[in-house]
Design a protein that fits this description.
heterodimer; A: mainly beta; ten-stranded mixed beta sheet; six-stranded antiparallel beta sheet; 2 helices; 23 strands; B: mainly beta; 22-stranded antiparallel β-barrel; five-stranded mixed beta sheet; 51% strand; elongated; disordered N terminus
Chain lengths: 339, 899
């Protein structure tokens, strides 16, 4: 609500020659940055836990990985699951621990994340009870004429929506995640040996959430999930959208809602005072700061393609020069669903 | 010299007294004789001599029978209240002398008036037959606006340039003077001063009308200048002139009364175009803004860019930031009492203005001459015209809309000179739409019927019956999300205020009561395809009442004591459902176990507050005074906002079983001084304010449609203190005012658990803590028609909460924030100037007009309105500031008035 009012203020500012400047408050970060633990147990992927340290606000981005940790997911109903160090990304995303095999969490069972770092600090999550994920009825899209405010040019696109059915229980907290993929082509005349075709992946811009207390019944229609701009890159071939639907615990939902609120309102000109989202993981052996969230859920998935034929006109444009891997999150490996 | 001679003679009389003429006995034959005749006969009979001026004693007649008494006893009795003294020269001779102080002051006042080329009018009061020179008599009267005979509150009435008084809310004044000749200076900021050569024979009344100053006064009054600080008995009380404000630079030429208020010492704001104002470390909801006696919930148009008041519809504004009188209650920091203009009882008047974003028009006149008058005014924006111009360049603005208007209607009917009935109606409306999706509308309307009744010269009263309404609607038109969110508060109000004057006492007493009905939120889907669930927050009801008694007592010529007591009462009542938490603390959604239903009218929570108020003024001499004040105020309604700058969609929450009333104590002390016959004025004031039960929100609180709001709010303590200084020059070609304020404002929210504390329970600066504030305003008159006004403001940057470090979860870059308000934005400073060009004042010209050409932010300072940050994927956090006025802003306004 206030975000919209904030846009109005910005509108006034534009009208009356306001301006935006970067500002540096010269904040000194704390000497000991907190641990950041991000754990995910879902039916569609192998269990995964990322462990790192928070990063200072000084123009650099580097989440120091926490290596050598013992990571387990326990359950009173199922056997414990050990996770092993899978990868330490070189770009500062922290250390990622993964389960060896896919484990499908059972509806009605509870799961708990346990972490013990190499220097003996232990963390534990609250138990997360798994609920039904519901059903994705349909994914569909609509052509919209639009405008790119940054470049001040016409920019058409597609709005993508989801119709969903959530569990028929009195209260539920739902989250949608997106995986989008499109094929890009580049001009490599001056770049011999460069790959000219890549697949670029993307995701949702912010947590997509809805809770039963805001919806009448358990059917949610026309949930806006993505805007797909139309250009020679995104619809050179096709645009693939996969929607993942799950239900999560109330406290996990509130954590992500806090993230959503911050992402949506960080640019609010009325200056909301933000919370730092409170997770469900605490340190048990020492007074150590930690920000952590663990979710356990079943999920359901559905996907569609948007094709150039869906665009009411022929898309014109010039392929950019250079290797196609210049696009962020791109790969030359063709995804299995592309055929 | 004259005074020295007088004292010498007085000394001689004291030392020379003994067996003398004064001890001679009288035989009763003197009864009913003129005093001069008796003295002549007495001289002959007893071979004594009297020296006097005939004019001094001629008015006296010996009314009583003094047989057997001494001459001294008789003369003492007759001359008891006069300024004449008897001085014994020797046993057989005596002289009458007169205290020359009044005469000296009178002559000085005339000299000052002559120097200023002011015309001096003659007036007499009382029956000459009852004239006794020097006898104390009471002069009463009423000071009114020349145009519409509406009373002027706070006008000063000063006899002989010394120790005057100010008019009350009905424009009435009362002075105790020795009968005889005086010079009376009557003035009010923005009005032409009147100088009266007055002869007072006996008790009587003198009503005067003041004419609004044409722009080209000999003395142009500085914007918002507090008037006659020396003689007002309360520190922190200001009377503001709308006329003077209109000559100041203004954003897009829109005279903004609230913005002008922010230039006063002790008043600040969180941002350049933020709504409302903060007074002495208090939050915005702690200001009581009254329009014709009814509280106003929203004072801004267009999110805070303009004030919601049409300056042409306002007669006067009284502003109290300390020593708040007992008649006001319900807000702990300040009172802004706005009175609308009435109609002209004799002829029609039309005035208006054309600015870059809005236009206004006012029409006032008689319905029935000298009996019934009306005043109607309106103001509207054509800001959409701007948007149309910009749409080609900024296509994103298509379907966006900015609209606002306000309108005022007032009808006055005089049944007699003692009885007047007034109807007042005010409405402000705003509509904003962003890119066709969501529309915001908010409306504030007030209507009141007021009866002013004079029961006797000593007792008058006013009775008010009114209704207030504030509501907003947010509408979304996207079919799947279509909704209306409504919020509404209504408040029928009754007031009865009495004023009783008795000698040195001026008693105010009365009662006030308002029934508040809140609809805290109602969400309704507005299309069949909408996913939105209908949510209706439970209505809340509360009764707020108060009775008060206050006395303004002129203990001596130099000491005035204002003391009062207010008893406030507040009851939150059913029907309502109150949540029950187990355990009772912490109040958290997870501890919600039950609820209690209260039937209609049943009390849920009741509060009473005893609110002492006191102010003392001591005139050290004719040029300086000191003032001390104390007040305690209870506040039962709270604005709930989780943003630094409040918005129209914030909600008001009455006190209940979870939210205790706010209580504030404030003490202030000030020293005031005039220099060079009031050419210069200076004052310094210190204050300390404590506040209990101030409401704050938990970090990240969601406030709208929250059925467990108490779980997201916290109460704590507030503290503010400061020093305010002010210097001004109010006469001559160049007039100016300079103020410097040092003040601090803190909050402490400490609960039993960390979840119920902010900043770990440690004290933190409030969002409007700006230690150093400097304001300079001036007016320079080039010629009869040209003048330049301007203002410069400096403020320490206000506190903000900024990202301390970042982290990434699930691929989202998220910021972790520092403790509340631990950093500051850059300091604020700005220079504005305006050129005022008056039209000529030819008698035959049907109208007069003036051009005001403003340049805001002359040197293009980019002051932060707010800061925000972007958390760019995957992790970098950049912080930005938005400046509303990023460059120099020129504007032009034309104001006109038909004669």
């Amino acid at each position: 609500m206030k975000g919209l009012l904030s846009k109005l203020t910005m509108l006034f500012a534009v009208v009356w020659m306001g301006c935006v400047d970067e500002v540096d408050f010269g904040v000194n970060p704390p000497k000991e940055l907190p641990y950041v633990i991000d754990g995910l147990l879902t039916s569609g992927d192998t269990a995964r836990v990322s462990i790192s340290k928070a990063y200072p606000v000084d123009g650099r981005f580097y989440s120091a990985p926490v290596l050598g940790a013992e990571v387990r997911i326990t359950s009173p109903e199922d056997s414990d699951m050990e996770l092993e160090l899978f990868i330490t990304k070189g770009d500062g995303y922290g250390a990622i621990y993964k389960a060896k095999t896919l484990f499908v969490p059972v509806v009605g069972h509870s799961y708990q994340l346990n972490v013990k770092t190499a220097d003996g600090v232990e963390f534990v999550s609250t138990p997360q009870r798994v609920d039904e994920a519901g059903e994705i009825e349909s994914i569909y899209f609509e052509f919209v004429q639009g405008f790119d405010r940054v470049q001040n040019i016409e920019q058409d696109g597609f709005n993508v929506y989801v119709d969903a059915i959530l569990p028929n229980s009195q209260s539920w907290s739902a989250q949608w995640k997106l995986r989008t993929t499109y094929m890009v082509r580049t001009d490599t005349q001056d770049c011999l040996g460069c790959p000219s075709v890549c697949w670029v992946s993307d995701r949702e811009d912010k947590p997509l959430l809805v809770q039963s207390k805001f919806v009448g019944g358990n059917r949610v229609g026309r949930v806006f999930v993505k805007y797909v701009p139309i250009n020679v890159q995104t619809l050179n071939d096709r645009y693939h959208i996969e929607v993942i639907q799950k239900t999560i615990s109330n406290e996990a939902w509130e954590f992500y809602d806090g993230v959503r609120y911050q992402l949506e309102n960080s640019s609010s000109l009325f200056q909301p005072v933000f919370s730092s989202p409170k997770g469900n993981i605490t340190a048990v052996t020492a007074e150590v700061a930690v920000i952590g969230i663990f979710t356990a859920s079943r999920d359901v998935r559905k996907s569609i393609f948007i094709t150039p034929e869906d665009v009411p006109y022929k898309i014109l444009g010039v392929f950019p020069a250079g290797p196609c891997t210049m696009f962020p999150n791109s790969t030359t490996r063709k995804p299995p669903f592309w055929n | 010299m004259t005074r020295v001679l007088f004292l010498l003679l007085l000394a001689v009389s004291l030392t020379a007294s003994g067996q003398s003429v004064l001890e001679l006995k009288l035989d009763g034959s003197e009864q009913d004789k003129k005093l001069t005749q008796f003295l002549t006969e007495f001289e002959r009979k007893h071979q004594v001599q009297f020296f006097y001026l005939d004019a001094w004693l001629t008015p006296y007649t010996i009314d009583g029978n003094y047989a057997g008494q001494t001459l001294s006893q008789m003369l003492t009795d007759i001359l008891r209240e006069s300024d004449l003294k008897m001085v014994l020269l020797h046993d057989r001779a005596m002289t009458f002398i007169k205290d020359p102080t009044y005469e000296i002051n009178r002559r000085e006042a005339i000299q000052v008036a002559n120097r200023r080329e002011q015309s001096i009018e003659k007036a007499t009061v009382g029956n000459p037959d009852l004239f006794r020179p020097g006898r104390s008599v009471t002069l009463r009267g009423r000071i009114a606006h020349e145009e519409d005979n509406s009373p002027i509150t706070g006008a000063t009435v000063v006899p002989n340039g010394h120790q005057g008084t100010t008019t009350d809310r009905e424009g009435r004044y009362e002075l105790l003077l020795p009968s005889g000749r005086h010079v009376l200076n009557v003035s009010f900021i923005g009005f032409k001063e009147r100088v009266i050569d007055l002869t007072v024979y006996d008790n009587g009344s003198l009503n005067l009308e003041l004419q609004e100053a044409p722009v080209l006064l000999e003395e142009v009054v500085i914007n918002s200048q507090p008037i006659n600080e020396l003689t007002i008995s309360r520190p922190g009380q200001l009377q503001l002139s709308v006329g003077a404000m209109k000559k100041q630079p203004a954003l897009m030429g829109e005279t903004d009364l609230v913005r002008q208020l922010q230039s006063l010492p002790g008043v600040n704001t969180v941002g350049e175009a933020a709504a409302g104002f903060n007074v002495r470390g208090g939050s915005i909801d702690q200001n009581l803004v009254l329009y014709d006696g009814l509280p106003l919930f929203n004072t801004s148009h267009a999110l805070g860019f303009f004030s919601a008041f049409n300056s042409d519809a306002i007669r006067e504004m009284s502003f109290y930031r300390g020593g708040i009188p007992a008649e006001y209650g319900g807000r702990v920091s300040s009172v802004l009492d706005i009175r609308s203009k009435g109609g002209d009882p004799e002829k029609w008047r039309v005035n208006g203005g054309l600015g870059l974003v809005s236009a206004n028009l006012s029409v006032r006149g008689p319905i029935q001459k000298n009996k019934t008058t009306f005043a109607v005014s309106g103001r509207g924006t054509y800001a959409n015209w701007y948007l149309d111009l910009l749409r080609d360049a900024y296509k994103d603005l298509s379907n966006s809309e900015i609209g606002f208007y306000d309108g005022e209607l007032r009808i006055d009917h005089s049944f007699s000179a003692e009885s007047k009935l007034s109807f007042s109606y005010y409405r402000s409306f705003d509509k904003l739409r962003v890119r066709g999706d969501t529309t915001f509308r908010w409306v504030n309307q007030l209507g009141s019927l007021r009866l002013d009744q004079i029961f006797s010269p000593r007792l008058n009263a006013s009775f008010l019956l009114g209704m207030g309404d504030y509501n907003y609607t947010v509408s979304n038109e996207v079919p799947t999300q279509a909704f209306d969110l409504n919020y509404k508060v209504t408040y029928p109000t009754f007031k009865a205020d009495f004023l009783y004057s008795a000698g040195k006492h001026r008693l105010s007493f009365g009662l006030q009561s308002a029934y508040y009905s809140f609809q805290p939120g109602e969400l309704k889907p507005t299309s069949p395809a909408s996913n939105v669930r209908s949510i209706t927050m439970e209505q809340q009801q509360a009764l707020e009442s108060g009775i008060y008694l206050s006395d303004s007592y002129s203990a001596t010529d130099r000491i005035v004591i204002d003391a009062g007591l207010r008893l406030s009462y507040f009851q939150n009542m059913g029907p309502a459902t109150v949540n029950v938490y187990d355990p009772p603390t912490p109040i958290d959604d997870r501890n919600l176990t039950d609820s209690i239903k209260y039937p209609s009218g049943e009390p849920i929570a009741t509060f009473t507050g005893l609110e002492p108020r006191a102010a003392v003024r001591y005139m050290i001499d004719d040029k300086s005074s000191v003032k001390l004040s104390f007040h305690r105020i209870y506040q039962y309604q709270h604005l709930i906002s989780n943003t630094t700058a409040v918005t129209p969609v914030d909600i008001w929450q009455p006190s209940n079983s979870f939210f205790k009333p706010q209580v504030s104590d404030q003490i202030s002390f000030g020293y005031f001084r005039d220099f060079k016959q009031k050419t210069y004025e200076a004052y310094a004031e210190v204050f300390y304010k404590s506040m209990d039960n101030v409401l704050d929100f938990k970090d990240g609180a969601q406030l709208i449609l929250n059925k467990t709001l108490e779980a997201d709010l916290l109460q704590g303590k507030g503290e503010a203190y400061g020093l305010e200084t002010y210097f001004s020059k109010s006469q001559g070609r160049l007039t100016w005012a300079l103020s410097y304020t040092y003040s601090r404002s803190f909050r402490t929210i400490r609960g039993p658990t960390s979840n119920e504390s902010i900043n770990n329970g440690e004290q933190f600066p409030s969002s409007f803590d700006q230690p150093h504030m400097v304001n300079l305003s001036w007016n320079y008159r080039f010629s009869k028609r040209w003048s330049m006004t301007g203002g410069f403001a400096y403020r320490t940057g206000r506190p903000v909460t900024v990202p301390l470090y970042g982290f990434t979860v699930d691929g989202y870059g998220v910021a972790y924030f520092s403790g509340r308000n631990q950093q500051r934005i850059p300091d604020y400073h700005r220079l504005d100037i305006a050129f005022v060009i008056e039209g000529n004042h030819k008698l035959k010209k049907p109208w007069t007009g003036s051009w005001i050409i403003s340049f805001l932010n002359v040197y293009g300072r980019r002051n932060a309105y707010s800061y925000f940050f972007s958390s760019s994927y995957p992790g970098l956090i950049n912080t930005y500031q938005l400046s509303i006025l990023g460059t120099i802003i020129p504007s032009v306004t034309y104001n006109f008035k038909f004669k």
